[in-house]
Amino acid sequence: MIIAIDGPAASGKGTLARRLAAHFGLRHLDTGLTYRAVAAALLARGLPLGDEAVAIATARNLDLTRLDRDVLSAHEIGEAASRIAVLPGLRRELVALQKRFAEQPPGAVLDGRDIGTVVCPDATVKLFCTASPEVRARRRTAELQSKGGEAAYDKVLDDLRRRDARDAGRDVAPLKPADDAHLLDTSEMDIETAFKAAVDIVDGVRAD
Ligand code: DC
């Protein structure tokens, strides 16, 4: 079984993906971390974000078992990840890595922006997770503040809108729901309600 979850930043897709993987006994890959890991390596070495050959070489050395969410969650790494994510050759490299992960038994949950459309077009179940920009900005602000960081709601909202526009507006694999994706708007849901709704969707598809 492969569960594909796509959606914009702070839509709740990461938490949902982790919980669904635990619930159904599947492996989990947050594909955003693969873009973030490449971006972090380039930033650490002071290399330009637009050099595709260097980005591809960095991606070839990625070890999926060593993606450190805490380190990679930094705001500037997310910004840089969104910038390098427009490079078609880099995407080809990372998509190949992600497909190999998805194909290993017993199956997997992958979350990102192009899982249902590009990485796993034949996934058993596709979810597209959304929430209004204001709700997502409130969640992200609270999350950053709970980690002791400084976060101003207006700036977080501006950043999210800019990142949404870049992720949805790029030529290669833009953020968009697959035609056969189930939409899950979590604007009015807490995580428990969203999780139950997602489990119901998955169970419904498997029962068909
Ligand atoms: O989900 P995230 O915030 O960790 O993702 C960081 C960036 O990586 C995001 O702005 C766009 C890019 N990304 C992508 O292009 N395709 C994916 N499948 C996952 C992330």
Describe what you observe in this structure.
Strands 2-3-1-4-5 form a 5-stranded parallel beta sheet, with helices on both faces. It is built from 10 helices and 5 strands, in the order βαβαααααβαβααβα. The protein is globular. The chain has 208 residues and is an alpha/beta fold. Helices cover 57% and strands 12% of the residues. The longest helix is centred in the C-terminal third of the chain and has 17 residues, at 153-169. The mean pLDDT is 95. The chain has helices at 13-24, 31-44, 52-60, 69-72, 75-84, 88-103, 115-119, 133-146, 153-169, 191-207, and strands at 2-6, 27-30, 108-112, 125-130, 182-185. It has a single domain, classed as Rossmann fold. Residues 9, 31-32, 35-36, 78, 81-82, 85, 112-114, 163, 167 line the site of 2'-deoxycytidine-5'-monophosphate (DC).
Notable characteristics:
about 210 residues; alpha/beta; Rossmann fold; five-stranded parallel sheet; 10 helices; about 55% helix; binds 2'-deoxycytidine-5'-monophosphate
Secondary-structure map:
Blueprint: E1 2-6, H1 13-24, E2 27-30, H2 31-44, H3 52-60, H4 69-72, H5 75-84, H6 88-103, E3 108-112, H7 115-119, E4 125-130, H8 133-146, H9 153-169, E5 182-185, H10 191-207
Parallel strand pairs: 1-3, 1-4, 2-3, 4-5
Helix pairs in contact: 1-10, 2-3, 2-5, 3-6, 8-9
Bound molecules: 2'-deoxycytidine-5'-monophosphate (DC).
